[in-house]
């Protein structure tokens, strides 16, 4: 049976005129889950609710199988690591070493050697105040410090914002290794499709406050194709449309050639040969295009944890 790190049931958060939710989600332990969606879709709000920094108006959230009334108990709070979109000001006058000695007192599993190794690998300058660091240097400190506390659940709000490509690669490898070695659950909000492609086991898509679903990344990759076939004119296009229920967004692209997209390429290929339709070429859509199609309403097959994914 799949163990859940977090479960949300009918969770609704009202933000002025905007409503985030209802959100129903089961987030499995030991996986990396990417939270994607356009600006303002509710990603940061969802992460804040997972820490009880924002409280939903409706619904319930369970952490590691327990729902919690009031504040998060200290043992649950300590098992969650959070890198917010903007760093907290309270630590800005400290050096990395001073901030670490404070955090060390709060997190019993703090691993100083791991913290130091990550600072070295990221080349975070030491001896200067966090508030004086560049955005990327501060981000690297935050990632190192959150991992050193040994969380079971890691909430990362756009963690790579400000990182150079070298640091970005270290971050990707570090998170992957951390998840593999500790069976931790990592929820990462991001706009970077390459990050999703490299890291995510599952993808959650939010759009304008609504949850569009959670899908397995591997099921999404390769799910959609763009296909071009010969079609003389609009009359022939209408015939194609009637004969090819698997084809979506069918239109004449250039004289003599029609373009379509499909999530049922094999069925379509068979139909082409049955009907004598001449395929000119096809290509598999990339993840960015698939997420855009999903946002526009072309829902993929969603993850079904009970099926044992
Ligand atoms: N503290 C707040 N008070 C009122 N409204 C808020 C607050 N925080 C966020 N909102 C609103 O809630 C909606 C969701 O915001 P949120 O920050 O969760 O989106 P996001 O998906 O993380 O966006 P981005 O990609 O830009 O970081 C937005 O319309 C935003 O204006």
TrEMBL record:
Source organism superkingdom: Bacteria
Keywords: ATP-binding, Nucleotide-binding, Transport
ABC transporter domain span: 2-233
Coiled-coil parts of chain: none
GO molecular function: ATP binding
UniProt-listed Pfam families: ABC_tran (PF00005)
Gene3D superfamilies: P-loop containing nucleotide triphosphate hydrolases (3.40.50.300)
Database matches in PANTHER family: ABC TRANSPORTER ATP-BINDING PROTEIN ALBC-RELATED (PTHR42939)
Protein name: ABC-2 type transport system ATP-binding protein
Organism whose genome encodes this protein: Paenibacillus forsythiae
